[in-house]
Fold this protein.
Amino acid sequence: MARKLLYSGDRVHTLFARMRGDLHEMHYRHLCELADLKRELEQVRAQFDELRAVSLARSRAELEVAELRRLQAIGRARAVQYDPTTTPLQ
């Protein structure tokens, strides 16, 4: 008993060609999406670098203000005249 062919050779080649085309299209879409993601990642890294620079600058400024306040307190303490009659040494 001979089996009936469901698909001819030409039909199989046509199906494989269409599947191959679909694979190429999916590959192209994935490459485009990957390129978009890489661009987005570069933007996020640039924003992070900028944020880090601002944060470090703020930290340095806060340290500088603290040092200036310390020096100001030392200057005020030196400016006060010591009077041994009003404040005895311990």
Summary: Helices lie at 9-79.
